[in-house]
Design a protein that fits this description.
binds fe (ii) ion; 75% helix; elongated; mainly alpha
Length: 161
């Protein structure tokens, strides 16, 4: 049946896109691990000592995310990437926190999209795993915005579609 074949082909394309997008997420998780390892140990100033501890715990959570995402890529028949996204560094503590906040905001936007893709493919358990990561990334956003004394950036729902 032509219709079934077309549907199957569409599903295969969507699964391949999901694998590619999850590999993009994995590159961002590696980037986050590296950034938090470095920033947590190099951030200077008495005002930043409590956020330094937070950043150290973020590093460990980002590693847990990388493991979860790799597992989903393998489950879908893909190969997890070895490449992190580039990490920006700065001597300024505020700059470091801003780089992290920008990255977390982008990550939240991406994972909202990923949950939708998983659900469209009927991969409900995978959507659930990604939702758990999403909750954690939003906590990271809040920690960073609080340390910077600013509001958490709002992601328009039209943007996250
Ligand atoms: Fe993460
Ligand atoms: Fe994060």
């Amino acid at each position: 049946m032509a219709t079934t074949t077309e549907t199957e082909r569409a599903t295969r394309t969507d699964r391949e896109k999901l694998i590619a997008d999850l590999n993009g997420d994995l590159s961002r998780e590696y980037q986050a691990i590296i950034a938090y390892v470095i920033y947590s140990q190099t951030i200077k100033g008495a005002a930043y000592m409590s956020i330094a501890k937070e950043l150290e715990s973020h590093a460990k959570q980002e590693l847990a995310h990388a493991l979860t995402i790799s597992k989903q890529i393998d489950y879908l028949g893909g190969t997890p990437t070895t490449q992190p996204n580039p990490v920006r560094t700065s001597e300024s503590a505020d700059d470091m926190l801003r780089f992290d906040l920008d990255n977390e905001t982008e990550t939240v936007r991406n994972y909202r999209q990923r949950v939708r893709q998983c659900e469209a493919l009927g991969e409900f358990a995978m959507a659930e795993e990604i939702r758990k990561i999403l909750v954690n990334e939003q906590e990271h956003q809040i920690d960073l915005a609080t340390a910077l004394g600013i509001d958490v950036p709002i992601i328009a729902s039209s943007e996250s579609r």
